[in-house]
């Protein structure tokens, strides 16, 4: 009797140790599984996301972009997991946590925008995988803020030979001390023949950026989307006003003195528009042939035409054409008819194409007069007349 009780206890103890060994094995296996599928790589990205999302530029669009990039993977995961999918689902969870921590007030908005698309259709955004390598960008959209840089990047992303990082990495201005490997690790994987890209519009006005980009690779192609500096300044002001409704009027910030009409060039919204000055700095490090100047105005009036120039400059087959765009009357901008593989059209988010506040015409005229000589020098230097006067 007593002995059989001992045996039961002994067997139970044996079973318990077998179960714990089994669970330990499962844990070890799971860990190796995630590392093999590259999930361990996502740690720096998570850290990055927290910082990059603090940026001034289209944060909401970036958040939506990141969530959009990850959503198809999540869908696949629930339909039948593959190792690459699992990696992205885990990354999605990590990013979502970071987004929430970063701006809790904005997360529901980002999620709402994202869930608007949950119509059951695939949005067709390609799911990245572990094929290919993470490379430094061969081409960067370096500016200008409010020029139309998001539109350009989103249009380019429909090209099968372009892979781009969705958010703005801000490596060459804010995070340079993180090192080049950190930067490279942010990039999506590309196959041979594909181009890696990113966009950070503040690079164009960052003094240190040209030498830093050159020390990564002096052959990097540089794209600058330029827009009438007066409209650009108003657009910039509109963005700041949307975040800070108590902002003084545009005219009080633009003019040092209303009577003399002296322009305040220390205001960044005006300084950014001195394109020739910023270009001079870049030309100390890169030849003009490595730049492409995209007209922000033509990107709206003739997106296919402008995208043709961009594809030629990047040495890409002309894939993006008229058939990819339609003009959305409500938005007042061209939108993508079929964002790769999807039958559902897509426009840029609400932070793109905001209505501008009324600015007194004499203030706009004063600014036009101010910019004219700078614009003309910019036309000469770039070899293109953008027709802003
Ligand atoms: N297709 C399309 N849809 C929506 N908006 C478009 C498009 N093409 C160009 N634009 C113009 O892009 C302006 C925003 O520029 P950026 O994307 O460079 O802004 S940012 O610097 O990244 O914040 C944005 O400026 P605002 O109109 O002042 O909002 C738009 O005029």
From TrEMBL:
InterPro entries: NST/OST (IPR037359), P-loop_NTPase (IPR027417), Sulfotransferase_dom (IPR000863). Its EC number is 2.8.2.-. Residues 347-357 have a biased composition (Basic residues). Its main location: membrane. It is a single-pass type II membrane protein. It is found in: Endomembrane system; Golgi apparatus membrane. The keyword Transferase applies. The chain crosses the membrane at residues 15-34. GO terms for molecular function: [heparan sulfate]-glucosamine 3-sulfotransferase activity. Belongs to the sulfotransferase 1 family. This is Sulfotransferase. It comes from Parambassis ranga (Indian glassy fish). The gene is LOC114440406.
